[in-house]
């Protein structure tokens, strides 16, 4: 029993950085001693979410790799650590310093959800399922959400669905086939869809609509287009019930002072502007900001920067381009266009920079935008509409319904800070199935630019040879379709547990 009590203490003691989640110190307790009520289960769930907010996961390590692996963001500062450059240039190895950090943090979050689920089972006889299952459903959602990232990145992975009660046995676990991982993810999300409430007091808690939206995304990734359409349409047909809608002004989605009043996010990781070491600190503004820029936060680090092809390709009439990119910055000599950025620091490049995480970061205690007040939407309602459109096109080409969902997203984009414009136009009629598919993927690219999902679109649609080829936005000669749709398993994990062999192909 000593081992399980020690493991529980290590896994469950998470310092939460989210102001929307209540948390109390829980001390060194065994599961039997801690779990006394549904509130205790929810505390363990909050601990899992705290792991996801950590610098080792969404705060920097996972997200910077996702961003750099896309075709829309490259390296600005050539002196940035090799662990980042390797993702951008597809030279990643199993000892990559991003992977070896976000992998264990992912499993810490999963372990916390497993403890929460097991805790709910411990007290199941003391409370009605209507009171306990909605909290357990939160844990199952967070577990599914975390595994969904892992299985897309690595393929076959260890799947753990219960607390570790024996360290030696835990070190002998082997990989679970990706197909089984997906089946377990779907089972968790279906449980969550059944038991989560229609609405929550804030967007940092999942709802029934959240679970359905992620079911749609999972099925889309797997190519189960009929199921993806079904789940997306369930959310859309119940948008009022779930309090969902598109924000009127696209800019407000990335304004930390306005995000809490919007109803577009289905699930957010929320930051509160306070520094607590690296637990809950947000580095996106720092990583994407312009060096030597004079502003309230002291500029950024010029690490993750869109190449000039992104700026040149993006239609200038699109309001989303103006929201997403900074083309002018203020230096000691005053405002300067992006062609002049390197004149003020050679680590800048002459290109427009990402503005989504630096323009309105809210209160940020640390310099360089760190510790922002930004809420990061893990799923926006706009994405649900585009999932529905893409899925319907695969089963019913030429559908006016599918075009209508894209048109809703485009209609919002035509609202340029309260001034209605004519761009982007509605979907042109008569598109073939292939043309419509390409159009939706382009719409996703611009609508959700720099929001960490583009790599997943490239991987699920096997677009690498095209987007990283000579005619792509960011040619990458090292890209290999036989290797790079999956990351290598962390080499230190393979050393500790040879049962995880073989390494992913090509590494």
From TrEMBL:
PROSITE patterns: PROKAR_LIPOPROTEIN
Occurrences of domain RagB/SusD (ranges): 353-507
InterPro entries registered for this protein in UniProt: SusD-like_N (IPR033985), SusD_RagB_dom (IPR012944), TPR-like_helical_dom_sf (IPR011990)
Main location: membrane
Record key words, sorted: Cell outer membrane, Membrane, Signal
Subcellular location: Cell outer membrane
Domain SusD-like N-terminal: from-to ranges: 95-220
Residue spans crossing the bilayer: none
Top-rank taxon, per record: Bacteria
Family according to the record: Belongs to the SusD family.
UniProt-recorded name of the protein: RagB/SusD family nutrient uptake outer membrane protein
Organism: Namhaeicola litoreus
Classification of source organism: Bacteria, Pseudomonadati, Bacteroidota, Flavobacteriia, Flavobacteriales
